[in-house]
Design brief:
It comes from Levilactobacillus namurensis. This protein is rod-shaped. It has a two-stranded antiparallel ribbon. By secondary structure, the protein is mainly alpha-helical.
């Protein structure tokens, strides 16, 4: 007879059986042991906090509250995306450099925010495309 005491997923808190290897709710790999799995997500945070203290009893100051198993992706920054799209459109529609100016403005607004590496690349491509569009328009005006 197997022991199927109720336990909880450490990632999402979904109730699971002790034989379960993967959470049916979030798919997290489970390494269940009876001491931690029966506590639920609320009590596991306290246990994790207790584990982050060093051997001298001092708290570990380098510990962050980020869950390493959290693979959620946030959407791309809208300003960086707008700068890129308008910058690429400026290659087709010049309108005396106005489209390029708009691309440069959105890209600069995006670069003033906290961006990921990919978002920075998008903003820079939009900025360069807009700047080329402005220079192209100025070459025809003069």
């Amino acid at each position: 007879m197997t022991n199927s005491t109720p336990a909880f997923c450490p990632k999402c808190g979904h109730p699971i059986t002790s034989e379960t290897q993967f959470c049916p709710n979030c798919g997290a790999a489970l390494h269940t042991n009876a001491a931690t799995s029966n506590q639920g997500p609320a009590n596991q945070a306290t246990q994790t906090q207790a584990q982050t203290t060093s051997t001298q009893g001092q708290p570990n100051i380098h510990q962050t509250n980020v869950n390493p198993d959290d693979n959620t992706k946030r959407p791309l920054n809208r300003m960086a995306l707008l700068g890129l799209v308008i910058g690429l459109i400026s290659w087709l529609l010049n309108f005396w450099g106005i489209v390029g100016i708009i691309a440069v403005v959105f890209s600069i607004l995006a670069l003033n925010q906290q961006l990921t590496h990919t978002e920075k690349i998008l903003a820079w491509v939009g900025l360069v495309s807009g700047a080329f569009n402005i220079l192209y328009a100025l070459s025809f005006i003069s």
